Amino acid sequence: MPIVYDKSRKIFHLQAGDTSYIMQIVKEKYLVHLYWGRRISSYHESRRIIWKDRGFAPNPDTSDRTFSLDTLPQEYPQTGNGDFRNPAYGIRQENGSRISNLEYIGYEISDGKPKLPGLPASSGSKKNVQTLKVYMEDAVAGLNVCLLYSVFASESVITRSVIFLNKGKKPLHLTKMLSMSVDIREDEFDVLTLYGAHNNERNMDRRPLSSGTVKIESLRGTSSPHQAPFMALLRKGADEDQGEVFAANFVYSGNFLAEVQVDPYRNIRFQMGMNPWNGEWKLEAGEMFQTPEVVMVYSKQGLGEMSRTFHKFYQNHLVRSPYAKKERPILINNWEATFFDFDEEKLLSLARKAASAGIELFVLDDGWFGHRDADDSSLGDWFVDKRKLPNGLKSLAEKIHDMGMQFGLWFEPEMISQDSELYRKHPDYVLHTEERPYTIGRGQLVLDLSRKEVCDYVIAAVRQILKDNPIDYVKWDMNRHLTDVGSMYFEPDRQGEITHRYVLGLYYIMDVLTSEFSEILFESCSSGGGRFDPGMLYYMPQTWCSDNTDAVCRMKIQYATSLTYPPITMGAHVSVVPNQQTGRVSPLATRGYVAMSGNFGYELDLGNLTDEELEYVKEQIQCYKMIRPVIQHGDFYRIRNPFNENLATWNFVSQDQKRAVAFFFEILSQPAAPVRILKLKGLHPDKLYRRYDNGEIYSGDELMYCGISIPLKKEDFRGEMYCFEEIEKGEENGH
């Protein structure tokens, strides 16, 4: 069984795939962490705690100066009673006390995985997952804490979350409620995080741990483009293909905190959860609070194995859309072709060219509703602008369907413009604090989704459009972050709850709409990658990866995004040159190969292409249709890292190892350039593979260990694609 409890030694041993996670109850009441790492068959206390009297380390037991909470490797540390490191949670009682002390009171092991009320979370059957609940109690405060560990037997994944229950007679305020805390009694790690900005999302930052704390967070009301809710600890020397990695990713779309603290004795505390800034919660007597989920992944073979574990886990256990296992359509989005300046005929002209090229989905972006001619009006008014579309959406969608394409539509449902009918009718719907002026972002304000009536308005407005029109795809955008956070409909002592209540309201809306319209493919977006997190993937199986469509920038953005998310979740489009974000001019082939490495589409005016370019677009589309099953549902392997060198290479391999697609990119041409060798990964060493373009045949081990020579070219921003298919032994005769 994945979870074993040794009653005599009071040891919990969790076994998930290739990893073990071990805890023990000491002194009858303290839950301590002993081990997280490569799977072991059984544990016989080889990794015992060495008790030591440390200076300035207080002792809860006056008879034992070697025992202190300040040096104890705790599983869920508290505050105010002798542990001076970062706590995992905090409380404030009615009398003002912030001291808390948790003691172990029991456990429960069950098959399967409970749902987390109101929150996105992974799932599993009773056959492949077990859940451990460890019950802790602060008797003085009347607080019960339940630590949840769900263990996936066939994957190296453990998920964690926490339930707080007020069993006292007075209200309690939770001032901090992290979902994961792990104390590790060693510190020789590097820490890896992903940082960025709008149009420059998910850069890789790897640094050695030293004294103090490495901390990343978001205070923007979303997971944000500035720091991803992901952190990994890497053994020294660990790389793409070797070495241990301990990773955590937060299934949440709001403010988060992730940190690793090195204490004076070279132990570390690795934590993740909701950000305590403006994140309090009032628990009335008898009430409970559920934290979001953290997905913990262990890899013994570097970042590559870590990524493929995340990819498969999210596809199999998190994404609930029927599209999780379906091929995604090639789309064209009208935004960079027309911006706000369009009418029905202009859209139909673009659609006709798209259909003739083989594109499968036409997406109408911003500007179809209210009187939306710029970004400072009409958000919230989800009715058709008859000036632009006099025949309505239904007529347009039907005409596009008649061309053999699906029809998609853009929304930004969480926002409101001051110049809108909704604002004039309901200025109270705005997220704000009384007596404070509005802060405007992108000409818009944010709806107060902490209020159910506002959520119900959003549901009703979007539902009406989706019911009245034949829509196959929805792009759900969010183009500003939360400011003026407050709600006049909650008491003063609940204002700290509004950021989390906003996220809960958003999840409620998405749960209703994506369940009711499960046949629609939903894509999330936040000015590109501003809210790319597992919480969104639960409702929407793909995300627009970045507003930056420059191929060279996208090499890095998509490379780093793939650390946690599979390529099928990444929206990636070919756009015009000079690129609108960077001014760079890159070849159409390279732009295509980078976009083909994700969820492929176009965002340009096909009418402005030359006949030669349009023919090449048709070839790209036919090529992607051929390789799409491998790209979208195969295993992904990173080979050369564009953050470290002038190259980017990666490849995809089908689940049965019968097909492979590899991409090679050289960013800048070099004088006296060396001949590059491309060594693929993930093939079957004993299979034979035929290269599509020239019919040459190689063995799998030859392609992986010997590699293929890349021809020299004098060309900046160069891209090459290599496709291979298995052949039967004997077919190689003559080669």
Low-confidence stretches: none
Shape: globular
What is the mean predicted local confidence, pLDDT?
97
Helix content: 10-25%
Per CATH, what is the topology of the domain at 52-314?
A: Beta-galactosidase, Chain A, domain 5
Question: Ends: how far apart?
Answer: 51 Å
CATH architecture of the domain at 52-314: Distorted Sandwich
- Helical/strand content category: alpha+beta
Describe this structure in words.
Among the domains are: 52-314, Beta-galactosidase, Chain A, domain 5 (Distorted Sandwich); 647-727, Golgi alpha-mannosidase II (Immunoglobulin-like), CATH 2.60.40. The chain is 19% helix and 31% strand. Strands 6, 7, 8, 9, 11, 12, 14, 15, 19 and 20 form a 10-stranded antiparallel beta sheet that branches. Strands 21-22-23-26-27-28-29-30 form an 8-stranded parallel beta barrel, surrounded by 4 helices. A hairpin with a 6-residue loop joins strand 31 and strand 32. It is globular, with a radius of gyration of 27 Å. It is an enzyme of class 3 (hydrolase). InterPro entries: Aldolase_TIM (IPR013785), Alpga-gal_N_sf (IPR038417), Alpha-glycosidase_related (IPR050985), GH (IPR017853), Glyco_hydro_27/36_CS (IPR000111), Glyco_hydro_36 (IPR002252), Glyco_hydro_36_C (IPR031705), Glyco_hydro_36_N (IPR031704). It comes from Dorea longicatena. This is Alpha-galactosidase.
